[in-house]
Amino acid sequence: MAELDSLLCTSSFSSSTPTDMSLSNSASLSSTPPTTVSPDSMSLASELDLPKPESITASSIEAVVALPGAQETEPQQPEPQQSESGQQSPLGADAIVVAEPLPLAETPSTARPRRARSSLPVYNIARLAGTDVHGRRRSKGDTVLEKRRRTISDGKLVKGTDSELDVSIDALPNASQAVHEEVDASKANRSVSILHTPRNARISKKSLASPASAHLTRRATRLSGASTENLTTKLSALSKRSKKAVEKGLKGLSRELRRLQDTNEFAHIDTRPVRYTVWSNGKYIDVDPSQPTPAPEPPRKKVKVDETTKTVEAKPAVEKQESTAPAAKKPHGKKKWLEKGLYAGQEAPLDIFKGLTSQEKKKLASIPELMPSGKPNKTLPQPMYNGLRVLINGRDFKLPFDVCNPLPPGQPKPTAYRTMTRNRFVGNAAAYWKKTPHFEDFASKCVCRPEDGCGEDCQNRIMLYECDETNCNLGKTYCTNRAFQDLQARTKKGGRYRVGVEVVKTSDRGYGVRSNRCFEPNQIIMEYTGEIITDEECERRMNEEYKDNECYYLMSFDQNMIIDATTGSIARFVNHSCSPNCRMIKWIVSGQPRMALFAGDRPIMTGEELTYDYNFDPFSAKNVQKCLCGSPNCRGVLGPKPKEVKPPKIPKEDDKKKKKKKGPKSAVKASVQAKVKGSAAKAAAKVSVKTSTKTATKRKLKDAFEFDGNDDDDAKTVKKRKIKAATGPKRTLSSASLKVAKGAAKGAAKGVTTIKRSVASVSVAAKKKKTALAASSKVTKAKATIKKTTATVRKTAVAKKPLGSGKKTTATAKATVTSKKLTQTKIVFPSRSPSLTIVAAGVTTTTTTTTAASSAQVSTPVSSAKSLPKLTLSGGGKTSSRKVTPSRKVLESGGLIPGSPVSAKQKSAKVKANTGPEGTPEGAKRTPKIKLVSGAK
Ligand SMILES: C[S@@+](CC[C@H](N)C(=O)[O-])C[C@H]1O[C@@H](n2cnc3c(N)ncnc32)[C@H](O)[C@@H]1O
């Protein structure tokens, strides 16, 4: 026994307050990992008020270890009991206390401590503390014998084996000081930094004051829901000596552990009541059924409420609101456009902080450059919304396209260009114009209804007459055929966006024009303005003023009428493309000749270069220019469309014969006569009307009007046309045109005269039958079938009248309106010359080649023209030879047999007029042919 005592003196285990049962369940605290040291044990020590300071720890342990029901409340009197090594404690298997034999204590510290300690019984401090529910490893039975334990004992590592060390602590009446210190050191694994704090002192006092029994009868704190005392608080109850020991022991702890030692987590203390059985952070948490089920937390996010219930619930509130104040409807934000900038139209937010996150607001506040200066930045307003955000973040961004003018500084500007926003008649041009039928014809009032809105059926529109107060049945409100007025209203104030176009320098084609904004399909873009001159004046200018020029800006509008845009609008800089995005269309506005560039069938984006098909007619090889448009279907040269070059198919035998029989009259006349007079013409008329479906006639009409061609679609159509043999009126018309072209050079003056006369007759007829025009409304209203129309055509006497008879007949453009009442109506088709002529450079003579700027669009260069410098004026000339130009009414009648009156309805069906907001006509489909003869020298 004494031996054992002596052994114990050096043992690392101690039990200064020997108890029978409690001690038996004690184990080396030093072997307990710091994370499982129970703070309660510490507090208990103080509460027990034990005489020996060094025994406090042990006694506290005893108290804690005491099994429920056993002497929990009363500390047992020390009753020295000894048990032999390896003897099980009377408490049973669960209370295994292992004492370390003396010899092992003397073992040098080089021995492996873990193995030595592995067999030592370990107090389940977690369990004692009521925190064992957290850790599975210690929750059941506390069988930690096999577990490795690290023991620090005064810097010595203790080693032992299970057999050797299984000594009941009961057999150790007095624990050695070393053991005490070990235990204390273990306890000190909790925070000691707070040990000497006043708070701890207070707590310690409090603890002392509180009855010990309360602590002795303990249950798992977490389960009880009672607040747990902090470990530090409990440590503070240690005596001075113990604290010393703790501090000493702390030295062996890793820094990380010391850092954690204050935390409840470290001590496995969860102050929150456990309500559910869950795995939380890898810990299994038991349910305490005694605890009431907590009310579910309110959802953070708004839960979707059933629509029906929502409406039911919301209804009274809404009603209430309505009753109190009339519902102020929030007006839909109308998108406006700023003067400049990519985001033109968006108003800069007044509160720039609006919509930003708090972090962004903070950052923005620190960037004074971004603060609103007070006046709007019109030069380059920053992009709205995202722009500011991007600037705040200092992130680079790229605009979808260049907003700045790509003209680099120092680039030559077009010098010869002078702006002219309105056409100006020069010389005799005005007088000449007044003589033309259009001057009066345009005044005919349309018969549209408000619901039609002067759409595709509007006769004015079909005729390319713009509606105005004098000739529109609807008025400004409903009329959509006022493109030029719209353009004027748009550009009135000026400004880049309103004007919408700008001159740019292209890399290879001189200057060009690009859009500064988007345009809708068929929307009017800009007017081609300049001086309206006669052919004579044009020649003079070419010979004198422009003789050294490389480019000419002369566009033929009508017979003996040319618009010289050398001084004019920037439309003159619009380049050619074989796949254009625009069309140049000639209109008559308030009786005046006007020409404008319209968007094609697809919308135009900001920054796109604007182009139209020049349908360039070089007339001479030397004038042929290489086309650099770069489109996939590029024709290679600034030349006419392939369909124009290709000679039309040889007409049928009988047609040929009949035409030949007519003698050497004007080709036009011959063809017209053939169609109007002869049986073939009758047949053709029949064919044209009978067989023409809406689409078919449309196509013919297209051919007749010479479309600029728009995009690839147009190219496809062109191909189609090439393959398809001309039939019926088309064919005859083509042959007529061909004849015109061929015979023009030979001076088919007679024919021209005839045509001229016929044109005149048209106007006369138009005048005479002006009243009949009103009846054309019936045309639009009456959905006349093709058969009916055919009948009408047959019956129409006018159509059958031969031109040669001297009677006033129209070759075309006469629409005989028929309902069953057979009201005759004449529609005069636009007689704007279908050719644009830009006079070739170096014109020295006035030898003229006449092109048949016809519906067939055969532009046959005349052989004589090759050797001669020429002035090419298609569709009109100053000399008699120029007058060979076939009647536009014939040519523009769109594949209808000249002289064959066709109902306006039928025509309008064929001509698909634009119904867009800006009243663009169908565009290319009715675009007069534009021929551009090379202006380059
Ligand atoms: C009415 S001007 C157009 C404006 C011209 N680019 C300028 O700088 O004044 C017509 C001339 O422009 C050139 N051009 C226009 N389109 C072209 C194209 N697709 N390929 C080559 N040259 C073109 C030709 O020299 C043509 O004679």
Question: What does this protein structure show overall?
Answer:
With 937 residues, this protein is of the alpha+beta class. Among the domains are: 2-269, no CATH class; 340-404, no CATH class; 424-643, Beta-clip-like (Beta Complex), CATH 2.170.270. 34% of the residues lie in helices and 6% in strands. The protein is built from 38 helices and 15 strands. The strands form 5 sheets. A 4-stranded mixed beta sheet has the order 3-7-9-8. A 4-stranded mixed beta sheet has the order 4-5-13-10. Helix 26 (667-676) packs across helix 27 (679-691), helix 26 (667-676) runs antiparallel to helix 30 and helix 27 packs antiparallel against helix 34 (786-795). The longest helix is centred in the last third of the chain and has 20 residues, at 749-768. It is elongated. The termini are far apart. Mean pLDDT is 55; it is low at 1-111, 138-176, 178-194, 212-223, 307-323 and 658-937.
